[in-house]
């Protein structure tokens, strides 16, 4: 099997961006299908709770990623900058994206923490995540 080089990955990414931009309705169908897979897996196999939460979280990330692609193609050059022309790291969009990301992985991380560290570790993680949010 051929190794995937950085230029090959860039070409694949460019094709994916073009496809998502051209077919947003199909993208939505794909996201929903992946989300339904997580529902069907629940209770079917060992550790299915963890696996279904992982797939559910990944479908949410895919949705967030695809939404960012669609927004960037709808309005290119939409980078938030301050008065001096520097990119703003703590813009409202970036903060919203960060909180959304934490929200998407919250249940997956809680389940993982309980399996690794028990109930006490799970509650420590819950407190940390809620504090971050």
UniProtKB/TrEMBL annotation:
GO terms for cellular component: peroxisomal membrane. The keyword Hydrolase does not apply. It is found in: Peroxisome membrane. Keywords: Peroxisome, Peroxisome biogenesis. Signal peptide: none annotated. One of its GO terms (biological process) is peroxisome organization. The keyword Mitochondrion does not apply. Belongs to the peroxin-16 family. PANTHER family: PEROXISOMAL MEMBRANE PROTEIN PEX16 (PTHR13299:SF0). This is Peroxisomal membrane protein PEX16. It comes from Macrosiphum euphorbiae (potato aphid).
């Amino acid at each position: 099997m051929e190794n995937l080089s950085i230029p090959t990955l860039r070409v694949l990414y460019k094709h994916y961006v073009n496809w998502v931009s051209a077919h947003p309705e199909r993208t939505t169908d794909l996201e929903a299908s992946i989300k339904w897979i997580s529902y069907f897996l629940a209770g079917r196999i060992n550790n299915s709770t963890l696996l279904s939460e992982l797939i559910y979280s990944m479908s949410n990330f895919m949705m967030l990623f695809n939404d960012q692609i669609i927004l960037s193609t709808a309005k290119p050059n939409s980078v938030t900058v301050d008065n001096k022309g520097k990119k703003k790291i703590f813009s409202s969009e970036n903060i919203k994206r960060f909180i959304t990301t934490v929200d998407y992985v919250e249940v997956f991380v809680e389940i993982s923490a309980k399996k690794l560290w028990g109930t006490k570790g799970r509650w420590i993680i819950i407190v940390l995540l809620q504090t971050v949010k």
